[in-house]
Amino acid sequence: MMIDSLISKLKEAREREDIDPADLDEILGVGPGWIETFEAGKTTPTVDFILAIIRSLGMDIADVFKDIDKSTAKSILSRSIEVENKKSHGVKGAEMRFRYNSYLAKVFIPSANEETFEKVKKTFRDNLGAGRKTEAVVEAFMQLVSLWPRANPSDIWWFMMQRLYSDPYFHPATEAHRDFGQSWKRTAGWALERIIVEHYRERLLKSDIEIGIFRREQVTEFLEAMKLNFHAEAHKADILLLDTSGRTKQCFGVAHVKASIAERRQNDQSFSSALLSKNFYSPFVTMDCKSAPSSKPHNKGEFGLPLDDADDRRGDKRKEFEEEGYYSGCYSFNSNTIPTPVGQKATARIFVINFQTADDAFTKGAVAARNRLHRG
């Protein structure tokens, strides 16, 4: 049986049940227009999607698939991610399953659960369906790190958010032609900056510091007032930190935000060095995402081992902070990142932080940098 015959059979069943295509979209939790797109033969549904339609219409699975051939089965791919409640070593959480290259990967997320994931996923899908891509990522991520306090934020970002966003079924069917891998790279950058601003805004305001993403003209004005010995293009200033304690706001720092250490960090190093030469704050904020494809991937990050008394096995990325000091410090939201050991001398330190509190090393560094500027 060819795929068009299968879709025709599902369409006939929907019409018999007198269910509108848009209503079935809503029942299935997908973006608007997918049922119409399938039934028009414009794209092929996955096995999971077909099974969901069958269950929703009360059809008999054996009857639907009794004539299906192997070539048709191979043309139908699986969905992006599944979450199931589990326990690991006595700890409650959920197992996340997804395709990772040729592997069926499994990652345990402590304090996670299937029920909250489904609710967040629906909100995520609704936002994408309305064209609010950046807002969808920001809202879903902030909800998940709040609902799952013991989860590694970097795991949620690296394993979950990327795959949810790249699943075409969460977007309107009219966007089925898009390369969502490329779209994720752009949207994720904007979303991560927004997440950092939202996380720290209220806490920093208590210390007369404003953190924000500003219009290009405003950024240009603030950078010119800093009189850097470097031509800093406004679009390279991801997030500004402003001192609001005086009559006028003054920029005293720029936060460089990247999902991974390798991501364009060298483009920011000259800018950061110019900031540091004037005693401004120049933190590097990251999810420190990195893992190798496997059935049980480990999001180990990119820093590797710290300095050991007996042997220095540090990699170049760690040394760029601890020895070369291109930035004020590195603030990682990956709980697997190994921070700079207490007592070790370092030009700039690596810190591990999370989204459970904004009263952390990043905030302390910002307040100290603003106070140094006043003393200077």
Automatic annotation (TrEMBL):
Membrane spanning residue stretches: none
Residue ranges annotated for the HTH cro/C1-type domain, each copy included: 10-64
SUPFAM superfamilies given in the database record: lambda repressor-like DNA-binding domains
Signal sequence range: none
PROSITE patterns documented for this protein: HTH_CROC1
Region Disordered, residue ranges: 292-314
Protein's recorded name: Helix-turn-helix domain-containing protein
